[in-house]
Each structure stands twice: as C-alpha cells, then as structure tokens.
Amino acid sequence: MLEENAVVANESVLLEGYAPEDALHREGQRRVLAECIKPASTGKRIRNVFLYGPPGTGKTMLTKWIMSELEKGASRVKTVYVNCWSRSTAYAVLGEILHQAETFVSPRESMLSMTRKFENATRHPEKKFIIALDEVDHLESPEILYDVSRSGAGLICISNNPYALSGVDDRIKSSLQVEGIEFAAYTADQMADIIGQRAKYGLAPNAIARDEIKMVARMCNGDARVGIEMLRKAALIAEAENKRKVSTDHIRKAFNEAKFMRKTKIESRLNDDETEILKIIRSADRINANGIYEQYAKKVASPVTGRAVRKYLQKFAKLGLIKHEGDVRWREYFAV
Fold first, then answer.
1. Closest Cα to residue 16, out of 292, 276, 202?
2. CA atoms of 141 and 89, how far apart (whole Å)
C-alpha cells in the first residue's frame, strides 16, 4: 500500500543495477550476444565478442542479464564479470576471477601461482567459463586477454571505445577472434520509451506525464544511466516537497544533481596518480603536458612515465573531466 504522498513505488527499478527482461531497443544486440554464448550451455566454446558504444547504451546491463539467465538455465556454465577500471592489472583481474570462481587466493600469492590456479579453474571439465571484462580499454596490459582466451574460457570484452582492441598485437588478435556488436546511442524517442518503462514499474500511477518523460529523455543525451538516475532523483525531490507528480522543475533540479553525482562517482574511481594529475590541472588556468608532468613528478615519490600521464589525459578528456585546445605539440589542458 503506497503512502498518500508517495511518488516512488519501487525504487529498485530506478537503480543502475536493475536489468529488465525486455531490454527495449536492444533486441538485435541481445539476439546476437545470445547466439555467441549459447554453445557454453552444452559445454562448447563460445564465440568471443566485443561490445562497444557510448556510455549508457545498455552494454553492461545486457551482458549481466544474459549471463545471469545462462547460469540459471545451464548448470555447467560459470560466468564472471570484472570491471577493468578498478582492476586494471593482470594480477587484479586474475584475483577477481578466482574470487568469483570460489578459489582461495592468499594476499601474497605470486603471479605464477595465480596463473596456475586460473588455468586449473577454467579448464574444469564440468564447468565452462564465460568471462566479461568491462571497460577493457583500462587494462594496463592486453596480455591478460591472450591468457584468458588461451585458457579455453569464453570472453566478452566491453568498452565505450570502438577501437579499444585495435592496438593489441597480432598474436592476441588471432587468439581472440572477437565478433563486434555495436550499441549505438539511443535516440530521444527510444530514450523516452526506456524512461517510460522505468516510470511505469518504478513510480506510482500517473506520477509523471508523458511530456516530462520526454524532457528527461532529451536532457540525458542518449545515456540511459543518466536518464534513469534523473527520473529517480526527480521523483524523490517531488516526494520531499510533498507533491504527487514530477514537474519540470523537479527534473531540472534532478539533472544538476545527476551531473554532480556522475562526476563524483567517476573521480572516486581514479587512482592516486590520476587524482594528483587532475588536481594540478584544476589548480591551473591552462597548462601543457610538460608542465603537468613537472608538477606531478615533484609531488609523488614514484611517478609514472610521461606516456602513462598522456594516457590519463586522454582518459580525462573522454570522461568529460577536462578539455584541451591546440594541436598535439602545443596542446593545453583545462578543467571543465
């Protein structure tokens, strides 16, 4: 029974981790992905896949949902999901795979020991492993892709960058043999359908009008995660104001909050070196890469290489944390 002023009926539907069974406007991608990994249900090797497209286009949601469904229906399948942003080294990736495979790993386990345990786990005759590596472009070394593929486990790579695997050497490419599946940005009409679906199951009846749903869809710019978070926040703001319907004012407030929370979430995932470099950029009006590195090298005990710093700068730009102007030689960076 809903409270009299309740706008939110089921908040879990409005959270990022929720995966609806009918993923709107992703029927084609779901069909191809299912076809690629279905052989695992009969103990056969899957076709490795690479899901790519802008943020918030359903790549992670669909992967987690379809792996969960496969595990439920096939006892011989074990699925593992690893986010390579937070686990970017081969050691960290193997550790997480073994953890989810319920294989004990001591805090001081050697890389050689980890590799042997990984090979033993993934070659289990009664289990076929499918390993999803999200944000695969954040891996420090692509060699782990070769190790996973060579082990006999199936591999799902996910990235916002369509060229994330283009830089790996031919030996790794030959081993992977991935099938690409593109996730294009949602159109405003498609986004309105998705927001409307979440509102239908997550909010009280008639708590938001179609015009307001379309407003959320336009403002989130094709990113479903942002749009759904805006819907949730707008509904909670309406409740806090003792209103029964979400208004355009609630949506505007929610948009500003969602932008701030997204940036905060992104920054919380940066490592210590990245955090220090971002501070240097924010403390300057404009600064070039050499100036950034000079300041950074003075502030940390063991600085990473200049090449690593340039990769961080590219990453910050993609995430919308900084912008730059000028060609490569004279490029200057500044905070957004």
1. 202
2. 7
For 250-296, the pLDDT digits (tens) are 999 999 888 787 788 788 888 889 999 999 999 999 999 999 999 99
- May I ask the CATH architecture of the domain 11-16+187-267? Orthogonal Bundle (1.10)
Half-sphere exposure of 15 (CA within 13 A, CB side): 6
Q: Which is more confident, 86 or 84?
A: 84
Residues in Cβ contact with 192 at an 8 Å cutoff, skipping those fewer than 6 apart: 210, 213, 214, 216, 217
Contact predicate 183/59, CB 8 Å: yes
CATH architecture of 270-335: Orthogonal Bundle (1.10)
- Please state, in angstroms and rounded to a whole number, the distance separating the CA atoms of residues 326 and 258: 31
Residue 42 DSSP symbol: G
Q: Would you call 97 helix, strand, or coil by DSSP?
A: helix
Backbone angles phi, psi at 222, to 5 degrees: 80, 0
Single-letter amino acid code for the residue at 186 = Y
* Distance (Å, whole) CA 9 – CA 273: 42
The pair of three-digit structure tokens given for residue 204, joined into one six-digit string: 């009280």
- φ, ψ of residue 83 in degrees (nearest 5): -95, 120
Reduce the DSSP state of residue 212 to 3 states and report it. Answer: helix
Phi-psi region of 103 (alpha: psi -120 to 50; beta: other; left: phi over 0): beta
